[in-house]
TrEMBL record:
Highest taxon, organism lineage: Bacteria
Listed name of the protein: RNA polymerase subunit sigma-70
Residue ranges of every copy of the RNA polymerase sigma-70 region domain listed in the record: 28-95
Family: Belongs to the sigma-70 factor family. ECF subfamily.
Lineage, broadest ranks: Bacteria, Bacillati, Actinomycetota, Actinomycetes, Micrococcales
Domain RNA polymerase sigma factor 70 region 4 type: 129-179
Keyword annotations of the record: Sigma factor, Transcription, Transcription regulation
Example GO molecular function: sigma factor activity
Organism whose genome encodes this protein: Arthrobacter livingstonensis
NCBIfam families the UniProt entry points to: sigma70-ECF
InterPro entries: RNA_pol_sigma-70-like (IPR039425), RNA_pol_sigma-70_dom (IPR014284), RNA_pol_sigma70_r2 (IPR007627), RNA_pol_sigma70_r4_t2 (IPR013249), RNA_pol_sigma_r2 (IPR013325), RNA_pol_sigma_r3/r4-like (IPR013324), WH-like_DNA-bd_sf (IPR036388)
One GO-annotated biological process of the protein: DNA-templated transcription initiation
Length: 204
């Protein structure tokens, strides 16, 4: 075990591919904290982030034969998978709370515990930026998560997503424009309202 702990990640991954659970455990130890922080950045809930982290590593084990190392590491693949798990988790939460809101309401006022259960748990905790990233299309979301959130280079992210660096750079630029538009405050006046001067002469 001591020799394995000193081994590089590519060597550990080769052993993991052959079904070596101890080697996979060492890969888990190397990246668990980083993956958890990535999940927590989106979900803002420790329990949910732990679930997302566990799901990402489970997928890593199940799909290990198809995983591509980037710079000798599975971390970029893990971060991309964690982003998708977080997205799916929030979709499920929204469906659940939509279902609750559609149920017939009792005439009596619910108690405080029932009201707390009926509220969306992400409404107050979810940062606007995380919500905007998770609202992007799948490819853009993965790219932003790798480059902007996780700090990977454009080249590494392109390798993970199997696109050229040039295509990744263009897509990232467009994704940033979408995020900027999503985060900009709405104008105070509704579009299409006539200016006061346009109404002159119409009053009796």
């Amino acid at each position: 075990m001591g020799n394995m702990e000193a081994a590089g990640e590519p060597a550990l991954w080769e052993r993991s591919l052959r079904g070596d659970g101890d080697a996979f455990g060492l890969v888990f130890d190397r990246h668990n904290a980083r993956v958890f922080r990535h999940a927590y950045g989106f979900l803002r809930n420790r329990h949910d982030a732990e679930d997302a982290t566990a799901a990402a590593f489970l997928e890593l084990w199940r799909r290990r034969a198809k995983v591509r190392l980037v710079n000798g590491s599975v971390l970029p693949w893990l971060l991309t998978t964690t982003t998708n798990v977080a997205r799916n988790h929030q979709r499920a939460a929204r469906r659940y709370h939509s279902f609750l809101s559609a149920l017939p309401r009792e005439v009596e006022s619910p108690d405080a515990a029932e009201e707390a259960m009926a509220r969306n748990p992400y409404e107050a905790l979810e940062p606007e930026l995380a919500a905007a990233v998770l609202a992007l299309g799948s490819a853009d979301r993965q790219l932003v998560a790798l480059v902007v959130v996780a700090g990977c280079s454009i080249g590494d992210a392109a390798d993970v997503l199997d696109v050229t660096a040039s295509a990744a750079k263009t897509r990232l630029h467009r994704a940033r424009l979408k995020l900027r538009a999503a985060l900009e405050p709405h104008p105070p006046a509704a579009a299409g309202l006539a200016e006061p001067r346009a109404l002159e002469g119409e009053l009796p």
